[in-house]
Specification:
2 copies of one chain form a homodimer.
Chain A lengths: L13 H29 L3 H11 L5 E3 H7 L4 H13 L3 E5 L7 E5 L1 H21 L6 H18 L10
Chain lengths: ~160, ~160
């Protein structure tokens, strides 16, 4: 215990603040840079890309909406909105889940498959040049562990890092 | 050189992909969580918070607009938009730079100072609970180095990491 007034917040120390400021800058600038690349080359934002990529990697190129929302890191309401837009563009369609008609699946269309196949190489190249090639191999493990800890702090249902 | 077809992208390996997927999730979810806290408690988004906080830490509580844009990690056009909104709410005002009237300064008002003093403790508490307290001390140094490398990859004008 220290002598801090109980209503004082526990301010960040110099080391914490330096990391937080640099990380904040990454969180603001990197999604903007990746979105710009995707918009320029494919007319998609990053969330839309994650939705199409997630479907393309799934058996039958289909996923239950609630699963797709988790995979694309968004809420179900945000996903519904985006899925409607992607459906209007012909990249996917919605249909009742054959196992349980109360649920809805999103299914990638052939046009959606063509779109993601055309878009992925450019996006991976951007991710590689802005992130992957900038890091040393051991920094991937550090970044994974740090990311899992933050995800766990935001949502304890996300598996505890270091326990797997 | 490997035997990859020249038009094949250099896909991510398993280790790179695991780190990238977890980090992508953080980049999507953490700003949303912090924005939600700021909106709920202060009616500000994170960019607006960074603008007010940046001014509050500057001599005379004032900064040239171009400096403030760098500090808040935004473009000058985005900053101009946000500064107009904050000015309408009475938290800052714009005035010509006294050294060179071609430039504009943003100046924190007394209301803006009161606002940031009231807002900072809750925001720091959120940053601490979602990020700082989730990490081990050595992970701050890892996160700083990783962040600086990514920032440098996006903008080589940002000092080369590890060189300072």
């Amino acid at each position: 215990m220290n002598a801090q007034h109980p209503s004082d917040p526990h301010w960040l120390n110099e080391r914490e603040l330096a990391a937080w400021k640099a990380f904040s800058a990454v969180m603001i600038k990197l999604p903007a840079a990746l979105d710009a690349q995707l918009q320029r080359e494919a007319g998609l934002n990053q969330f839309e890309y994650l939705v199409l990529a997630g479907l393309s990697e799934s058996p039958g190129r289909r996923l239950r909406m609630s699963t797709l929302a988790v995979l694309a890191n968004g809420s179900l309401s945000r996903l519904s909105h985006v899925v409607k837009r992607l459906e209007a563009r012909g990249y996917l369609r919605r249909e009742p889940c054959s196992d349980d008609g109360r649920y809805t699946n999103a299914v990638l269309t052939d046009d959606g498959w063509t779109k993601i196949v055309a878009t992925a190489p450019g996006h991976v190249t951007a991710v590689r040049s802005l992130v992957v090639d900038a890091l040393e191999p051991e920094q991937f493990d550090q970044l994974l562990e740090i990311s899992l800890r933050v995800l766990h702090a935001m949502d304890p249902d996300v598996g505890c890092p270091g326990s797997g």
